[in-house]
Amino acid sequence: MPSLKIRRHRAPLVVAIALGVVLFGAAGPASAHNQVTGTVPADGSVVTEQPGTFSVSTSDALLQAETGNAMVVSGPASDPRYYGEGCGVVTGGTLALDAQLGQPGTYTVTWRAISVDSHVISDSYEFEWAPSAGVPLAEGTVEPSCAAAGSGTNTPAPDAGSSGTEPAAALGDVLWIGGGVLAALVAVLLTVVLLRRKS
């Protein structure tokens, strides 16, 4: 019965592969980082009425930390001033700041947020402010009301335009990768042991 013998020897290999898939599959989703799903106003949009609230929404919840989350609205590009009070408020996966805009022109929203997995995401985007006739304009301030925690600068994200990983997140990635390697080793070892027992 050669075919039966081959099937018996293949069985441990199938079990090991299945085990590896399960273990790698469990580690995969945890390594995915938070992503931006939308902003208000939209990047590159033309705004004609006071938005009132500026926001960045993400695919995962944000950490409601007293420091670390920040949003700054500035403009116009020709003579920038800053608008809004504080560093914004986190609700679920959204960071929002209430602000009224000033003179027409190009405005920039710069933000920084910490996901619940300790991964830091930050970026900035621009929109055009072209207020309709009669829309009240704010004066703004020469300095932002929100400074980055521990950055020593007056902007919430000195690395705006990119995303980074704090040491805690980097350690988490290393642990997940290590777990995947360990799972592979266990699968190989299990295969060898079972094959020897069958032989």
From TrEMBL:
A cellular component term (GO) from this record? Answer: periplasmic space
Q: For the CopC domain, which residue ranges apply?
A: 33-128
Q: Where are the transmembrane segments?
A: 174-195
* Ranges where the record places region Disordered: 145-165
Which domain of life does the protein's organism represent? Answer: Bacteria
One function term, GO molecular function aspect: copper ion binding
Q: Where is the signal peptide?
A: 1-32
Q: Which Pfam families match?
A: CopC
Name listed for the protein in its UniProt record? CopC domain-containing protein
One GO term (biological process): response to copper ion
- The protein's organism comes out as Microterricola viridarii
Protease found in the keyword field: no
List UniProt keywords, sorted A-Z: Copper, Membrane, Signal, Transmembrane, Transmembrane helix
